[in-house]
Amino acid sequence: MTEPILEIRSLTRRFPVKRAGQRPWRRAKMSWLHAVDGVAFAIAPGETVGLVGESGCGKSTLVRLVTRLIDPSSGNIAFAGNEIGEIPARRFARTPQRAAIQMVFQDAGESLNPRFTAARAIADPLLRLSRLRGSALAERVREAAGLAGLPDELLGRFPHQLSGGQKARVGIARAIGVEPQLMILDEPTAALDVSVQVVILQLLESLKRRLGMSYLFVSHDLNVVRLLCDRVLVMYLGKIVESGPVGTVFGSPAHPYTKALVAAIPSLDQRGVKRLRLSGEPRSPIDPDPGTCKFYGRCPKGQSNCAAVMPELRPLEGGRSVACHYPEIAAAEATREAPTVNSSLLPFQIPHPAS
Amino acid sequence: MSAALRHLRYVLGENPVTLASFALFVVLVAVAVLGPWIEPYDPLATDAMHALTPPSAGHWCGTDAVGRDILSRIIAATRLDLGIAFAAVVLSFAIGALAGLAAGYFGGWTERAVGRAADTIMAFPLFVLAMGIVAALGNTTANIVYATAIINMPLYARVARTEASVLRQAGFIEAARLGGNGEMRILLAQVLPNTMPLLAVQMSLTMGYAILNAAGLSFIGLGISPPTPEWGIMVAEGASNIISGEWWVALFPGLALMLAVFCFNLLGDGLRDLIDPRRRT
Amino acid sequence: MSEASPLLAVVDLSIEFRTRGGTVRALEKVAFDIGRGETVALVGESGSGKSVTAYALLGLLDPAARVTSGRIVFGGIDLLTAGERALEEMRGREVSLISQNPRGALNPIRPVGKQLADVLLRHANVPRVEAPQRAVEMLAKVGIPDPTRRAAAYPFELSGGMCQRVTIALALACSPALLIADEPTTGLDVTTQAVVMDLLAELAAASHMATILITHDLALAGEYADRIVVMHAGHVVESATAGELFIRPRHPYTAKLIAATPKPGTQLADLAAIPGNLPDVTRADLPTCRYSARCERHSKTCDAPLPLVAIGPSHMVACWQPL
Q: Do B178 and A90 count as a contact with CB atoms less than 8 A apart?
């Protein structure tokens, strides 16, 4: 059993919030927004783990914690056996692990300094994190650009002179230049047209194999996650509510939220079919009740038990885990290579509460 | 690069006033640089016999009360006034902009401290403050530069702070951190270059104020002392002559002053047009 | 397509933009129509011209735009030649628009109830005293819980999904005959997207309202639209019912687009990118078929002026060599 490249245990990050209507002269009790609330998972070397969840679920905060741009409130982050959660974010730049954990951003254009050429952008991390200089540095920049499929003649261009796909390649070249072991991909194709998306995704897949990296692939597009990832983590309001092999989790979701996510994906097969829809708004992430399930109130099920005890991630069959008191375990467990998602596999068609 | 030049041509083409201000700017700088070589007469040479002669072929702008050629003095003054203004603007930018950038980027105590300092300066009527500084420190050219620089610092600080606090959230800043950059390095190598266009506009606009400030201080006797040629002093000297009918002594220096300030204001506007379409928002 | 004459017919529409970089021939001979109560999706990637088409329908084009040919016939009037007064009357009352970034469409310093009331007063001739109550009713109709309290809320107090519901209420306040939805769910979570699209479908069905859904998401179009019009670089390349388009696409671009869209069951290696890039639409020497540079089936016959071949009763393709 190889050691995981990344291991997260009980990771929590809270932000203080001021409550509206507080008297400034009274020392009122602080309120805390639980962005990441006790998250635990591991990534094995060479694995691609997907992270899905909607806005407000805490995935951006989790990403910032893993890349050590912010510090955890509590919990452990272990990279290749070393505990890196203890090192303050502002000192992390000078540790050897900085080069080992890199990220490709969602909006490539935003992530490039408008006044830097592509070559300068790719060279910057190398200047800071490697000993390469002069012609050796230039050679490495060209090598990284080549791996990312960026032609040499584009290296002298500025971001505003590059297309969306080209900017994405610059971002990728910059990230792989320092030879990271763990790469976080934060919705890398969200801003791209579908035809460019294919090329970039195929590039990312081949780079992973060639350079021996592990990926944490964050996305809201479940179809894309299904393509690239071995396992997937489903996040809701700061907690992981389901995890497991991607085919199983999407093929027969056990957690009601995952079911709703999968049911929401538009598809020609679902024309006119009345599907599960989530109503209402998520619970507040501020000062959440530790005894109530995060999904309670929006969940189509929801028993009294759900408001009394917080469900923890428990392992089920098939290498998956679910944090739910009443998970749905399909009678026929779909295999990892399930070719089609057929909603008739789901044993319970839960009608929309309003219908 | 060619796209930038094309854009420049477009802006200049659309707006003839901007083009005129660019041309005027070039002329002013040329006069300042070439001053000693193009002066028809020695600006300090007096000639009591030809005092207060109106504009003529020999003296295009006439002569003043002690017979000095006004045109030569205006040309000599260009170098001085532009020089003072430029030095003041650079000093103002160096301290004000950096303080503002740090305030906007780091927030917290830095922002509060810089904010208080800026508020203190801005609480005074700026010209009065400049007067006070020069009066306290002494009538030297250096002190005029310092005074002018100090009263303009809050402006740079404010512009830089706003830009930095917006850029703080930008994706490329996070990317820079991932690439191993420390905070100070990010501030200077990544944030500053991105705020330069806006600050360059500011610099151009404050050149105008700085010239006016230096001239104004000299006008009331607090700045450059005679016989050094300086537009403000010349206007002051010529003020009393207006009543006796010798209009040229004050008018030509005043015109030069006006043209210079006008030029820099329009230049600032033109620069803003140049960089505006490329700005994010 | 219904037997009756269409509600809106776009005929031979060509639009150019004068820019510093040259003349951008954004649309060329775009044609499609939509019948009462139908939902038609305009699908295309960035640069396909779908948004330009939407804004042309409402007469909201940029001043640099020039319509070089074509007509937009709505209720018997050509919208391109109608005066500004006529267009103003029509917008909001007969034709409405919702776009992406719902928060951007709302006035941030005015409560949402008041914004709704403004539309009702302006276009629906509702008496001033009744407007607030009608606004609350509209909010309830779009599924906003506790509408009376929410009517007093400001946009920043509402979530993205709620804001989009408010913009839908604004758009539907006067029961328009046609709704243009320009990427209405881009930027929304997938669960919120599902709810918003369901709501639009429900409301459209209830009031027999036609909808033009502009999107880059082929799957979304497949689920919610009756017919799909595929655009590429300012041309309409194919138009068919949703089912037909996916089962048997006839234009090479459509086929490639479908092949590039991730679906459950496809592997990464199965996906194929679309070769080449969008043509530079500022060039004067564009080929008649703007896809020909990227098309593997290109041949001499493709240089002739583009036809619109009818494959079936409601299936048209602009190609000399359809699949």
A: no
Chain B residues interacting with chain C (CB cutoff of 8 angstroms): 6-7, 10
What are the DSSP calls for A54-99, one per residue?
-TTSSHHHHHHHHTTSS--SEEEEEETTEE-TTS-HHHHTTSGGGT
How close C25 gets to chain B, by Cα (Å)? 21
**Which CATH number does A6-20+30-229 carry?**
3.40.50.300
Does any CB of chain A come closer than 8 Å to the CB of residue C195? yes
Question: Is residue C2 included in any domain, yes or no?
Answer: no
Question: Minimal Cα distance from B7: which residue of C?
Answer: C20
A221 contacts chain C (CB < 8 A): yes
Sign of CA dihedral B224, B227, B229, B230: positive
pLDDT at B11: 67
- Give the model's pLDDT for residue A17: 85
- Domain span including residue C29: 8-94+176-317
pLDDT tens digits for B193-242? 989 888 988 898 899 989 999 888 988 888 787 788 888 888 988 888 88
- Where residue A310 falls (left for φ over 0; alpha for ψ -120 to 50; beta otherwise) is beta
- In terms of average pLDDT, the best of B121-125, C15-19, C289-293 is B121-125
Per the CB < 8 Å rule, is A271 touching C242?
yes
Q: Which residues of B lie closer than 8 Å to A, measured between beta carbons?
A: 3, 170-172, 174-183, 190, 193-194, 278
* Adjacent-strand bridge partners of C309: C317
Do C128 and C109 lie in one domain? The reply is yes
Cis peptide upstream of residue B227 (ω within 30 degrees of 0):
yes
Q: Do residue C131 and residue C232 come from a single domain?
A: no
Chain A residues in contact with C269 (beta carbon < 8 A):
202
CATH 3.40.50.300 segments of chain A:
6-20+30-229
C236 part of a folded domain: yes
* Parent domain of B31: 2-278
Rounded to a whole number, what is the distance in Å from the CA of C20 to chain B's nearest CA?
8
What is the band of A150 on the pLDDT scale with cuts at 50, 70, 90?
very high
Partner residue opposite B181 with nearest CB, options A93, A112, A114: A93
| C20 chain-B contacts, CB cut-off 8 A | 6-7, 10
Are residues C193 and C170 part of one domain? no
Residue B84 confidence (pLDDT) above 70: yes
The token pair at B205 is 């606009």
A340 vs A23, residue with greater confidence:
A23
CATH of the domain at B191: 1.10.3720.10
Interchain pair C260, A198: CB under 8 A: yes
- Residues C88, C150 share a domain: no
Q: How many domains does chain C have?
A: 2
Residue B189 has what DSSP assignment?
A: I
Q: Output Rg (C-alpha) for chain A, integer angstroms.
A: 22
Which one is predicted more confidently, C196 or A56? C196
pLDDT at B281 exceeding the cut of 50: no
Q: Does C125 touch chain A (CB under 8 A)?
A: no
DSSP 8-state code for residue C5: P
Helix, strand, coil shares of chain A as percentages rounded to 5? 30, 20, 50
**C200 and C298: one domain?**
yes
User: Are C78 and C159 found together in one domain?
Assistant: no
Q: How far is CA A139 from CA A98, A142, A196, B10, in A?
A: 22, 5, 27, 39
- Looking at A21-35, C101-115, C300-314, which range is the least confident one? A21-35
* ipTM above threshold 0.85: no
Query: Each residue of C132-172: pLDDT tens digit?
Result: 999 999 898 888 888 898 899 999 888 888 889 999 998 88
CA-based nearest residue in chain A for residue B182: A93
Compare CB distances from A223 to C195, C257, C264 and report the shortest one's residue: C264
Residue A269 scores a pLDDT above 90 = no
Within this chain, do residues C61 and C128 fall inside the same structural domain, yes or no? no
Is residue A242 pLDDT above 90, yes or no?
yes
The answer to whether residues C185 and C135 belong to one domain is: no
* Amino acid, single-letter form, for residue C93: R
Residue C135 tokens read as 């606004």
Residues of chain C in contact with residue A164, where contact means CB-CB under 8 angstroms, are 46
Q: Which residues of A touch B175 (CB under 8 A)?
A: 103, 105, 111-112, 171, 174
Note the pTM of the prediction, 2 decimals. Answer: 0.83
